[in-house]
Amino acid sequence: MTILPAITTIERLCADALVAAERQIEKRIAARLDPVACDGLDRLTTEMLPGAISRFIWLRRIEPGNNSAAANRLLDRLEFLRAMNLNDGLLAGVPPHRVARLRRQGERYFADGLRDLGADRRRAIMAVCVIEWATATADAVIETHDRIVGRTWRDAKQLHDARVVETRGATTATLNGFTALGQSLLEAHGDGASLEDAVARGAGWERLTSLVATAKTLTDTLGDDPLAYVDQGYHRFRRYAPRMLRCLDLKAAAVARPLLDAATAIATRGAVPAADDFLRPHSKWRRQLRAKGDDDARLREVAVMFHLRDALRSGDIWFDRSHRYGDLRHVLVPMAVAHAAKLAVPSDPHVWLADRKVRLADGLARLGRAARSGTIPKGSIEDGTLRIDRLTADAPDGIEDLMLDLYRRLPPVRITDLLLEVDTALGFTDAFTHLRTGVPCGDRIGLLNVLLAEGLNLGLRKMAEASNTTTIGNSPVSRAGTSKARRSTRRWPTWSRRKGRCRWPRCGVWVEPHRPMASSSPQHGRARR
Q1: Hey, which bits of 296-444 come out as E strands?
Q2: Residue 209 Cα to chain centre, angstroms
Q3: Cys-Cys with 157: which of 226, 328, 338, 421 at CB 3.0–4.6 Å?
Q4: What pLDDT is recorded for position 468?
């Protein structure tokens, strides 16, 4: 027989153990900092920038933009963070969830609050924030570059479409001129008259020469690709691209090595080499470069920026200390572990492909014999088309009674209580952060209220009607753009701690803390454990 203390005593001991573990981790991180790093971290909370903002708050404003000015602002932060020389070795042996917890604590504090903490705790939190913010800032720089490339392409597409619209009148006039000339030639041919005289009496040779020249120009304009206009964004890339390439330690797979060499040339020498081996053999960019001739330096540099965006997306080019654009091999299971796991598929892909080819050939042979004999199970071939009979449900008798009995055995639970329990175990609400500051939402009940309304397709208005603590203004409710997860590009509401509620932008919705509602009716899917 085991005698246990009271549950409150156990909870207090567990809480003390968690606090002791957290303090031990903070001391471990702080002990690895040298005096220079400690002085640099302490200055983050005391150094003030124009606008009465501390350096610490300035650094955590990590927001991707869509222009070169935003990219340069992010690069300013990235260069400052890299200059502090805090590497990942400070976090060696620290569990990832502890690192994430320290970062969240740093994002909740302001400079004066950090100064009130103990030295070890303050420096540990700030060291983790510097390392994690450097990674997040580098990812934001790449995302900004991605948006700039997309914006350049859209501008080129709009310019191309505008040129096509401008040529509509000239195209109509040219076609009318050729139509009149063709009718004159056909009439002369039918009468047996001289075609030269018909041309002279009709449009005239000078008019015909002008029509041909205009038709050639129109053909070139209408046949142009939007890529012919992307070099208009050259100066946009020039303002930040060399600096970005110098800040990021890019690495590439063998297939993207020529592209990385071209990017390195832009970063170091400021010019792209004349070789275009970073392009695919049948790429449209090659035709545009040939059309430019010797004056293709700008277009070649823009092509490198476009292909760099695609390579970062696909993982052919990566850089270390990145959450979104890191080496994909770190995500995959090592081959030694895969061999030890004894997977159901062979480790050699050629063996698996050979086996599948044998199975496919055997299946096609059996299908051919069944088609010739007209014995395809529940199917037939009519006029060269394979027709399969509709499958019917073949549920055994009593399956519905069994399902109802299983549901009766499960205890009912409020869906709001279930959300709170899952969030306590996983902490998924911390993934919903402020768009500009990255601070997690402080009102967990209000956040779960909104997630429940969206997840049940109930809407904020009906959620407010079902609650006596949630209010909505007179403005119309818009479902679009009302949530933002960590990697989403939608706008998250601005949380107001003073009022204890949040306001949805552009829709006038105020969501306040709300106690758990009753569980949903069985017709709408009752939540159960």
Answers
A1: 317-319, 379-382, 385-388
A2: 53
A3: 226
A4: 60
